Amino acid sequence: MPHGLFITFEGLDGSGKTTQINRLATWLKKRGYSTVITRQPGGTATGERIRALVLDSRSKGLAPQCEMALMFAARAQTIAEVIKPALAEGKIVLCDRFTDSTEAYQGGGRELGSEVVLELHRLLCSNLRPDLTFLLLPPLGPALARARRRNLRTADKNKGDENRFEQEQDAFYRRVRKKYLKIAAREHARVVLIEGDHGIKEVHEHIVAAVAERLAKLAAATPK
Question: Could you give the domains of the chain?
Answer without folding.
Answer: 5-221 (3.40.50.300)
